[in-house]
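Q: I'm building a small set of examples for a reading group on sequence design. Run inverse folding on the following structure and report the sequence directly after it, with nothing in between.
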């Protein structure tokens, strides 16, 4: 079996708004791998190739949960399918931004099942904000990871502050996960 036939198993199918950002990131990569992304962005040499357009459209539709077929039934090109899904699921309005920001600043480790869950919520929420055009700087993500920690992490935070180490998301994530393994 060729790798181009394995794509749907490699990316999560689009369920709805809850996984749209992840799907929107993964799908172009899959289409680029098979030289089909040009059909979506409207590159002339691709648009003029009906076989590629059909293949790209098929790939996009097969990456959807069946409940979402209704949104694209009338579309005839990969570009139309992509734009329709974008219109349906890409919520970049004020309410979405407020809700994501609220999640980002109110997530607390003691309200999560594990450190892994806590870290994933913060980082995924920051990526969702980035995806809708509200950039969250990496050092801010690192600081937010520290801000949601309970009091028993205070010595670690003070140690980081005194070390002069840059507070970056990946560094703090690694540090938190290492702390869990020590205990």
């Amino acid at each position: 079996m060729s790798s181009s036939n394995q794509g749907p198993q490699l990316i999560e199918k689009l369920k709805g708004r809850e996984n749209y950002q992840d799907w929107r990131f993964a799908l172009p990569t899959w289409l680029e791998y098979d030289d089909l992304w040009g059909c979506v962005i409207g590159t002339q040499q691709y648009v003029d190739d009906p076989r590629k357009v059909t293949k790209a459209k098929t790939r996009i539709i097969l990456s959807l949960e069946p409940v979402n077929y209704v949104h694209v039934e009338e579309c005839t090109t990969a570009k139309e399918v992509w734009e329709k899904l974008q219109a349906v699921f890409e919520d970049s309005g004020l309410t979405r931004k407020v809700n994501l920001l609220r999640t980002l600043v109110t997530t607390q480790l003691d309200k999560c099942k594990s450190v892994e869950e806590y870290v994933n919520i913060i980082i995924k929420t920051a990526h969702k904000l980035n995806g809708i055009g509200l950039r969250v700087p990496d050092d801010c993500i690192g600081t937010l990871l520290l801000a949601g920690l309970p009091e028993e992490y205070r010595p670690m935070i003070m140690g980081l502050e005194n070390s002069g180490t840059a507070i970056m998301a990946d560094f703090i994530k690694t540090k938190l996960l290492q702390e869990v393994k020590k205990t």
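The chain has a mean pLDDT of 89.
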